[in-house]
Amino acid sequence: MNIKNNIQKVSLGIAFFGMVCGMNSCTSQKEYSQSNDIVYPQPKIAETNLQNPTVIGEPFVILGENFKNAKVYLGDMPCSEITVSATEDTIKATLPRIFDQAQLRVVNAYRQEVLSDNEYEPVYPLTENVEYPTFITRGQVFAIKGTNVDLIYEVEIAGQKIEVDGSKANPSQINVLAPSQLPDEVTIKVSTYNADSNVPESGSISVEDAGEFFDPVEPVVLFDFEDGVNPYEPGDVTPENGLDAGNGISKGRGDHYLTVRKADGDGWTSWMGQLYYDTPIDLVTFTDPHLSFQINSESSQGYFQLQIGQNGNDNGADFKASNTGNDGDNYVFRATNNEWQWVTVSLKDLELSDWGGGLDKVDIKGTLDFVKLSYKQGNGANPYILNLDNVMITDGPVVVAKELEGFETATYIWDDNGGGATHSIDGGSMNAITGDHYLNVHLNGATGWNWTGALKMDNSNNLDLSGVTDPHLSFWVNTGDAKGNLQFEIFQNDTKFGGNIDTENYFVETNGEWKLYTFRMSTLAWSNWGGDADKPDFTGTLDYIAIGFSTGNIDGERYEVNVDGIMITDGPMF
């Protein structure tokens, strides 16, 4: 059984970066190579508990040696959940859910690889309980849900056949890009890897034109450093590099970030190293893919160039005001003065330089073979300093229009309603998700629909939204091991409006994890809480926004809400 051709091959041959030209000079960029005199440790497979044929998505163990920071593949398809023992002789991993009959392949930290003696054939379960959408939008992504729907490899809509790549999908949902030319009514049928599935064709589905905005797909995270492993690869010179080594700065988002610094940077002359993401990224379901990341240059500046591979070709690009929208970016990232700031660049509009790789333009419906961030000082100041976090491919830009509250100081404005809730900075049992601090509000034995108090934010007063194209209220929530609920209050044109975080259950549970909420303000279900206006105007100015800590449907249980990173974003936050 052959996987459809749209599932791209993972390129893991020994790479040579070549002569990559920067703005003012060309620099030889070296990687691990057979031409080096150093003999790198060669991985060896002694034993594995994999059976043949083997059930997809199953965990397995490999015994052998020289498995430092190993990656594992079935042919060209990467395995997941890889852990390597401290002695580097045991790997635990999980099979991919889609792969050709192939050998097991292990690639270690030195890019040396070994193949198993045996080939392994996948066993695919049935695709069942398929739910088609009730409508689809021309030229936009829609979802098919069910059991093992990631094992769908082709979708046919009104006679048009669309190949889909389930290797990047959830077993319970696969996203499909609808053609831009469709009749007003269509039917959908699918083909699956297990032909015995016999999934029935859909009924009649209505088709509509795209509106002003689109619902983005989930981002692809290239580097967030949350595994605690430093992925930095040194270049011709080796700068200081490591996790969480910033000087006098807070965290970006999450617990870890990457720091690179060099006291005597020399502009374009020295190549200092790279971050290399070599897992193919299928862009077909993205409407407007962007490369987005956070930077913090402390009191100086830093820079890297971008290199992208696609269809066996590649080329590079630089960051400048014309593609980042920030005047401070001029072949160097703007000075952030100890603040974390977002850089977001459209791949559709990205101007590639001729580095000799043959790629003229990014195909935003194709597959990226790799993404490299190549560290140079560029036009930056001396010393070179750059802290980096949350490198992602996002569906749309990441634009913070207004930061409302980050809790980085001990002061905040609490409007008490006599509801008995306890509130404090860092009062929960978790770390902050953005920066170093967050707000905790809790109440034992809560009664339903008790407005325990409200967070009032100075930055939300007289909030002018006229320059924000698609205003979203975005923030992080963690309910610990309890349940929580929030309501929102805004005031405009002598009218108070209220909205809810969850209009179905009126409570949320995050089970100790931070969850990002990002609401399009114009489509949130606002109720009139007093006044004559029919609805808010989100192209004008709001008198204020307040977040009400209302217990909702939580009755007789512990109520807890931890919030962090409250902001107005232009479009969704990712």
From TrEMBL:
SUPFAM superfamilies xrefs: Galactose-binding domain-like (SSF49785)
Superkingdom of the source species: Bacteria
The protein's name in its UniProt record: IPT/TIG domain-containing protein
Organism: Flammeovirga aprica JL-4
